[in-house]
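Changelog note: in this version the structure field was regenerated for every chain. One regenerated record is shown below for reference.
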Amino acid sequence: MEAITVSVVLIALVVASSILVRMSPLRLPIPFVQILLGAVAAFVFDLRVQLDPPTFLLFIAPLLFLDGWRTPKEGLLRDKRTIAALAFGLVFVTVVGAGTFIHWMIPSMPLAVAFALASAISPTDAVAVSSIVTRQPVAKRLIHILEGESLLNDASGLVCMRFAIAAAATGTFSLLEASTTLSGSHW
């Protein structure tokens, strides 16, 4: 399928997901409906979208910038320790826990590869967090903490992915090298 056709189908699915969520008697988060429709479309129409990393950055960078622009700066600074603990600590704990679980479920998968897979699924999405909490009575401060965390957790997920892939390729992992790279000395 051509890129234009895939784009038109995906735009139609986004519009359809909004209509379905509004018409549904259930209170479903729109990202859930979009993922479900995308999976059905991929199966039915054999949709395949391949993005090389530079093209992916063209899409993700403006979205992250917009979310960062909308996030209240005073709340971000006030809760910086909580946000950092969630954005870095929680992602690392999730990667280790999910990676270990994946390796336990599929013993033939090397642990480093399981960690790479876990690092791809561990960071939460700012748009998903926003759409889920807008329908529930949640304190504004908690919403700001979750949105701030979801803005920063992509970086920690990418760092985990980088080291998991390096460990899978080389067969070794150095916690000292990983921590110095995370602190910025090798960027």
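Spot check on this record: Residues 1-50 form one domain. The chain has a mean pLDDT of 79.
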